[in-house]
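Please, structure for the following, as tokens.
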Amino acid sequence: MADDGDVIKVNDVGVHQVNQKMIIRKKISIQGNAVGGNKPVISVSEGFVFEIRSDVSINDVCIKSTGGNISERFSLGGSAGVVLVSGTLEMSSCYIQSSYGSGVAVAEEKEPAILKISDCSIGPCGRSGLIVNGDGRHTISKLRIMNCGQTGLATNPTADSITIEKCEISKCQEGMRFVEPSDLICKDIIVSDCSAIGIHVFGARDISSGTPAVSFDGCTVKGCPRGLVAERNHVTVTWGASNSIECTTAIQATLQAKVEQEGARSPVEEDSKKKSSEGYSQVGSEEDNFARYFRLLHHTSTTVLLAVFKASFNKSAGKEWSPECGKEVYKTLPRECVSKLGKESRAGLESGATDTWDITLLSSLLLFSPGYLKATPEEELCTVIRTHRNQLNHNPPTFKCDACQDKCSCGLGQPIMAKSEFDTKWQELTSVISKLTASVLSKEEHQKFASQVEELQTHKFKVSEDREMRDLFNSELRSVTERMSKMEENAVTKSFLGKALESLQSLFKSNGTVDKDKLPQQVALSNNKTYTLVKKAGAGGMGT
């Protein structure tokens, strides 16, 4: 058993196989003894190798997690090389691999955690090479990350600044991914040969805590289908003249994300801009069909439902809708309805910021609670719009891509829709919009939406507009995937707790005391050992 301050030396350069993850709660140092370039290997067949909960340093060792379920994240029973939960972890001169998980991960916990990692090689990894969650002023430098199934280096929303410098990332799906970064600084980074995106930056849905920002200095992105992609509102990316991009598509900014290029240019980017402004997509083509239908659903239908909601609220409440009414509606919702909305929808509703509302939120308010259209002739019309949205997001279209041929994986493909499918969907959706606006809205508003639909039907899309619809759809699809992932996590947790509670309840009599006859003869604990219960079990100690 190690004590605070101990130095654990791993001298044998062979493989040290451990049966389960090692949880470190003491302030210790693990020091390998590299011989002729070979480092001692510490390996586990499934789960984590190390879970850090104190101030720890690890140097000159190879850390391998060789098994596990690649579909599970490290926080949900997946695998990883090293997981930092709390304390300060300093790592240097290490090799980290995780065949079915992430290499190094900082967990999202309330306890403070700081990672200082340098001169390490990470990969191959089934998921991400290095992933940072939660707050902490982390220092990341001189890393070589390669061959990761998802992202080489990723950060999720953080309140503290992070500095990343002198790293090389290659042959991952995405090189770097930053979600709502807070004053993140990247210096002298090389990202190359990633299959989808070199650098991917996501802005914030809510800027109450400040506008996310990330700056790059002396960075290079090359050999990726897309170099730098910034999306969602409220994010500022500074990409100065010291940086360079050599990719099929250099820089993309969607949904009002802001990229300040400060003189940085790329021949590929300029050529791409020139081509995108040269012409229009062919009317009636499969690409044009999808762009036209998606704009009808995403923009026109959402605007229609918002107008119907406001008109219904005004009639029900006897007053004009204003942003202050958001809290009023929010307070009337049953708890089960609130829990189904999701964090972003709840915030948008409570603030009354209708420009952030989508079809899911609007149709929920109209159909379920408060349910202004419930048991009315318009209920079925609203349901059709909601169904169109669900079908599109849960059954994504085919993407046409010259580079990927059969199945697009680079993110540059254009979603397409066959003429027969387009004709059916267009006819149904435009008919519903016409009937719903005629029934609920004023004659002037009905005519306004009819004109919008007519104009959209004959609108000639530029190639750049087709791409805008693609990027908007991809962003929404990712958002849906994230929400479904969180719902799945909650469902797993609730299922586990439900079964555990059911099992516990079966041990009690009606008067609240333990029914000893129902107690098991043996129990298996998390240390993989089985214990036999003694006769006094249930009367104190084990079993109570």
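The chain has ten helices and 32 strands. Residues 264-278, 484-497, 535-544 have pLDDT under 50 and may be disordered.
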